[in-house]
Structures are given as C-alpha cells and as structure tokens.
Fold FHA domain-containing protein.
Amino acid sequence: MSKATFNMICEELKPAVMKKNTMLRDAIPVRQRVAVCIWIAEEIREEDKYYFFKNGTYTVGRKGCDVIIHKDKGVSSIHAHIMVDGMTQSSQVTIKDLSKYGTFINKNLTSNKKVHQFPNKQTSLEDGDLLSFGTGNATLRFSYVPLVFYICCAEASQMSHYLEDKVSSIG
C-alpha cells in the first residue's frame, strides 16, 4: 500500500476514530488506530505487492495495468483480468485469461491448471492460490486478509453508521 493511500484512509476515518488526550494519558494517534488489510496479490521472491481496495476489474499485464509483470516476455500487454466482487473472504473473485501464452493457477501445489481451459476462460480465485503468467517466470500469491479497525468510543451505536459509510466510501 502506498503512503498516500494509507494517508487517504486515515483522513477518511479520522472523524470516527480520533480521540482527545485526557489528564491520565495521551490519545492513540489515528495512524496507529487504523490497521488495514485487504485482498492482496504479492509477487513471490520479490517485494511487489498489489492491493485491491474495492470491487472492480483489475488488469494484469506488461505496462499501464493495475498489476504489472516486468520479468516475463511471455506476458501480454493486457494479459488477464482479476474481477473482485466483494471485500469479504466469501466474496467471488475470478481471473480471466486474455493472453496468447496462458495464465495458470495452482490450487494444490501439485499441478498447474490452465485458466483458458475453464468455461469463458475464467475461474474463481481463493486465498493462497498461486498465479503464473506467460512462460511462468512471474508468479503471484493471491491472499485475503480482513479489513480490521480498532475503535474505542462511548457511543458505539452512533459511530457504527458513520464508520460504515466511511469504510464503504474507500471500498
């Protein structure tokens, strides 16, 4: 997650989670109150991580895409689409192959399945799936980690609607 994205999330939630200092102790800063985790695709053996904050279609390809794969010349300009249908673990997340050289999914660590062999050249993704693109030099692990907020407030019922609206606005 970029620093700008994290700052944007903190600013959106600031009115709901910010507390005042008391005579007994200083309030915990907003940045420390917000713990954010989301759907993530991270490159195996590398530091590249791609975060999906909201529902939508994300492109995978060589350049100008949401997920950029540099190290495999078998990756097409627009290689695949990842479609996120929700931000819960039970949400439907699918991948669709749009490429010449293929997109592969390894669900059980023993064999790769070719995504283009599934109906409509797409299949569901699950937590922990390994995705390979092109000739296989680029592999991503697809993971789900819940979005977690720690909030302390006296009027929880009033805050819940406000917080729900703010969380919805960021995806």
